[in-house]
Amino acid sequence: MRGKGIAYIHWGNSWQLRSFQDFRHYIDDLIYIHDLPELDLSSYAAVIMPDAMDAAAVLPHARQLNAYLRDGGFLVVCLQGHAGWLDIPGLEWTAGNCRDWLWWTKGEKLEVKLSLPLHHITDSMPLSHMSWHWGGSYNVPEGARSILEIEDGRGSLFLDFPKLPGGGRLLLSTLDPHSHNGQRFMPATTRFLQSFYPWLNRELGIVRPARTRFTYLQCSQVPSEWRPEGLEESLKGAGFDTLFAPLYQLGPELLEGTDTLYIPSSHDEFFLKSKAEDLLVFLAQGGNLIICAEPCQPWLPFMAPFHAVPARPFANIKVRVRDDRFAIFSHLGDGFDGWKGIFGQYARGWTDPPAGAIWLTDVGSQNDPKPADWLWQYPTSTGRGGYVFMHNGDNMTRYPDHGPQKEALVANIAVALQKLSLAEILI
Q: What secondary structure letter does DSSP report for 80?
């Protein structure tokens, strides 16, 4: 029986790796191309061969990849030069590209169109998600169906071979979405992958978890801290299922049952340090942490000691939004950091963020601002690490405490982490 998962073959190219990291939620295994001889591809429902692959690196594995197709596998191949290693009778590649590389700066339409009749992938992926340059075109041999073509009849840019001999299936494209998404250049390529990977999973009948499990770690038995009023309702409104769990229940079993763990500011640093290994495994496997802390004894290796900013002048402790690319703060109003109109409790200082973290909010003087909030992806060799939202201050369940967006802050953060995990937004 053919396996259920999806494999992604890479050549070590940074663009390929970054695109895998982005869309890891929809992919099961990352495979280095030189390790292919050691693997049985029949254990996968689909195998991705992304663009930016060295054409010569594929050739030694052509027999294995064609055998996977003949045995009923589903192979997805993006730009691969001429892709002459594919055993597809009658398939021919022709060099060529768009007439004007700068078409997108001139408001002109690119000379591509969806093939008729429309392929069902276009229900999930409109023409705008497939519109940029290309690396040549293919004819449409017998048994193939074109998805996207050049308007003047020069050939197809995206082909589906739905029923190859032996029951295999091939999706073949001369588009190069992984390389440009990995370079963070050309937004259409990111939209392509954001459409394509969910579609591929649906096509294979693979259902991935929605990552809606949120756990609030109960660290201090004060009513407002133990079960903050309004928190569960606001999270439910954002689509999350909330669990309230006592701090001293923290361990592998609790972490296995959640996608995002929230840790309030008043907590037992000694105990959390004793659970550091469990928390790092949780992050390495894609779990997310929201930490409120002013660490005296940092309890995770990437944390640093807390530093307070000078309390005078008063403006030092007015927190300012620096980067709201994740739409966490923008609609909360300028007073989001005021609890009952009092500034200074949301955050009075900072911790040094690890390399690569995104600095979200400022505290301190205008001339020497410090990061009150930062967001960081936990690095792993597999690229599957989850995210850390570090808040260097009070329990965020208090903010904002007024206005139409009451209790929205924590839910906004949870939504942002979920969207990052599902590649709906990218860092």
A: B
- The tens digit of pLDDT for each residue in 59-101 reads 999 999 999 999 999 999 997 777 889 999 999 999 988 888 8
Same domain, 231 and 277: yes
CB atoms within 10 A of CB 186: 17
Residue 156: strand pairing partners? 138, 149
Backbone angles phi, psi at 256, to 5 degrees: -65, -25
DSSP 260-286: EEEE-SS--HHHHHHTHHHHHHHHHTT
- So what's the pLDDT on residue 418? 98
Q: What is the pLDDT of residues 261-273, one digit of tens each?
A: 999 999 999 999 9
User: Using an 8 Å Cβ cutoff, are 138 and 93 in contact?
Assistant: yes
How many CB atoms are located within 10 Å of the residue 404 CB? Answer: 9
Please report whether residue 181 resides in a domain. Answer: yes
* Bridge partners, 75 (sequence order): 47, 170
**Do 330 and 376 sit in the same domain of this protein?**
yes
Q: Give the pLDDT of residue 335.
A: 87
- Asked if 150 and 20 sit in the same domain, the reply is yes
DSSP character for 121?
A: G
Q: What gap in Å lies between CA 346 and CA 393, rounded to an integer?
A: 5
- For the chain, what percent of residues have pLDDT higher than 90? 86
pLDDT in tens, 404-415: 778 899 999 999
User: In whole angstroms, what is the distance from residue 233 CA to residue 279 CA?
Assistant: 26
Beta bridge pairs of residue 387: 377
Eight-class DSSP state of 68: H
Given 150, 174, 204, the domain boundary residue is: 204
> Amino acid identity, residue 221?
Q
Residue 1's pLDDT is 44
Residue 157: domain span: 5-204
Contact between 225 and 395 under an 8 Å Cβ cutoff? The reply is yes
**Over residues 357-369, mean pLDDT:** 97
Q: Which two tokens stand for residue 180?
A: 């440009």
126 and 243 both lie in a single domain: no
For 125, counting Cβ atoms within 10 Å of its Cβ (0-12 exposed, 13-18 middle, 19+ buried), the class is: buried
Task: Kindly report the average pLDDT of the chain as a whole number.
Answer: 94
pLDDT tens track for 200-212: 999 999 999 999 9
- Of 169, 204, 239, which one is at a domain's C-terminal end? 204
Domain count, the chain: 2
Same domain, 231 and 118: no
